[in-house]
Here is the input.
Amino acid sequence: MPEKVVPMIHVPDVRATVDWYLGIGFTVIATYGNEGEGLSFAILSFGGSEVMFNQGGQPSKRDRREVDLYVYSDNVDDLYRRLKDRVEIVEEPHDTFYGMREFIFRDLNRFWITLGQPSVFDMLMTGVREGNTESVRAALGAAIDKGGLNLEMLTAALAIASSEDNKNGEIRELLKEAGAVPPPEVDAEILQSYVGKYKGEQGVEFNVTIKDGKLFAAPGRQQPMSLLAVDKTTFRPIAFDNYGSVTFNVEAGKTMGCALKHGENTMQLKRVEETRRS
Here is the structure.
């Protein structure tokens, strides 16, 4: 038997839970019953994944329970249209900054279920990194079908397609035809002036480094993210869609701090330490 992890969820009523999951497209693999019509345990599948339901769970009115189910699919929007009038929707279909298109709903026991598939942004960036022209063309077509092409997304893709280790002329031309423009050029001396450590009032730490002429940033000890210039003082992570931005505060030619924007929130940080120049 191949090694795998299968979640086991304890629910108040296994029979009712099995019936509910059958109604949204799951398949029964096996059930085990108590005396009479009750069920004490069941194994269900969805595509190549499985989930177990066991008796003994307690009802809950909490907004979010101890366990979520994340289900990968190839047709999130179609499933949303099929299920939206039959389930309690928590979040409607949307593209996440980490490259997934998702929607979230609750089961009858109030456990969250997220249905997700790669977003157009992820499809495009993966195609560019792999040098797959047809994948890039398909992603651009999908973006148009969903309402238009995002200029920041196209610019990020063009920056990767134009990098020294990933030059692909055909993909670059496809992106330019779709409206992509190169990111602004920022002098190496200006980039170097942003390198350092920044801290906020709540102890938030933000580290900015430079490597091979490119700016990187990382909150705390997290993995550094490559940054793409929006203008000479504002940058955004190249690998994430609509994640946020960092804007450096420069006074009299000296970098004093930065503003981190994520969603509707903006946090001001002060520069506390300069990194030694290489």
Summary: The two ends are 53 Å apart (CA to CA). The chain has a mean pLDDT of 90.
